[in-house]
Amino acid sequence: MDCLFCKIIAGEIPSNKIYEDEQCYAFYDIDPQAPVHFLVIPKEHITGANKITEKNSAVVGHIYAVIAKITKELGTGDDYRVVSNCGKMAGQTVGHLHFHVLAKRNLAWPPG
């Protein structure tokens, strides 16, 4: 498989890992858009939010629990944004479900 995030999970491409368990992997974004900017990805290759089904959806709840744990450890308080782009027009550049977590700056709405 030629997936950037699958290669990161496999250790073929280096990353600045924050967290890892049997279901997901979290690492800092290489082009941060906020003082805190990390991604959380499922280890299972799911191409995007539009491919979440009843069968594979439990990992999303787990990822949100991991996000709450990491943000607490990083001292972001309750102020952070979670973003998952779905499709090219929405800004998805890697075809693997991922959640951006941004914090420690004022995040405008609507996003660009």
Automatic annotation (TrEMBL):
Family matches, as SUPFAM superfamilies: HIT-like
A Pfam family annotated for this UniProt entry: HIT
Active-site residues, as the UniProt record annotates them: H98
Gene3D superfamilies: HIT-like (3.30.428.10)
Residue span, HIT domain: 4-112
Short motif (Histidine triad motif): ranges: 96-100
InterPro entries documented for this protein: Histidine_triad_CS, Histidine_triad_HIT, HIT-like, HIT-like_sf
GO molecular function: catalytic activity
Recorded superkingdom: Bacteria
Family matches, as PANTHER family: HISTIDINE TRIAD HIT PROTEIN (PTHR23089)
Protein name: Histidine triad nucleotide-binding protein
